[in-house]
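Please, is this right?
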Amino acid sequence: TRVIDVGKTPGHHPVPQFEINEILVREAKEGRLVVRLKGGDPFVLGRGGEEMLHCAAHGIPVEVVPGVTSAISVPAAAGIPVTQRGVTASFVMASAHDGPEHVLAAARSAAPDATLVLLMGVAKLPETAAALIAAGRAPHTPVAMIESGWTPQQRTTTSTLAHAAADAVAAGVRSPAVIVIGAVVAVRDELLALGALLA
C-alpha cells in the first residue's frame, strides 16, 4: 500500500484541495484502487462532496463509506450528548472557521434551546461568542471546548459563553477542537460528580 499524505492542520495546507482532487483522478486512472481516508464524516465539512464530484466528472466511480462526524463523536467522548431529554431535542452544527456569520445563521434557524456545535472555531472564538451574546444567547450559557477528541491527548475545558474566549486563552486551547454551546454541557458535570467519567 502506498500512502500519499495530504493532511491539513490549522493554517497549514501543504496540498491544496485542487491538487488532492487531481491526485485522486490520476491514481485511479493509473489503475490503482484509491481510498481517500478522512477523519470524521467525509460529507460534514470534509470536502467529500467536492472530491466525489471531481472524480465523477472524470469518469471515476466512487463508493462512499460514511463516518461519524466529530460534531457528535467528540462531545460524546467528553460525556456530552448533543441532545438530552428534558434539556434540548435539537442541535445545529456550524463551521466557525471564518467567524460568526455561519454560526449566527445556524443559530437563527434553530430552536432557542438548541445545542450549538462549532467546528474549526478556536481562532475566532472571541468574535463568535460576542456575536452570539449580542444575538440573544445568555452569557451564562455553558460552553465546552474539547481538544484532540478520542486521542490520548483529549482535553476538555468548560466555561460560559461570556468567559469562553478568555478561558480558552488561559487554558491554551488549541485546534483541533470541537466547541459545544448549550445546557447539555452540564451533563458532563453530572457524570464527573457521579464518578462515571474521567476528567
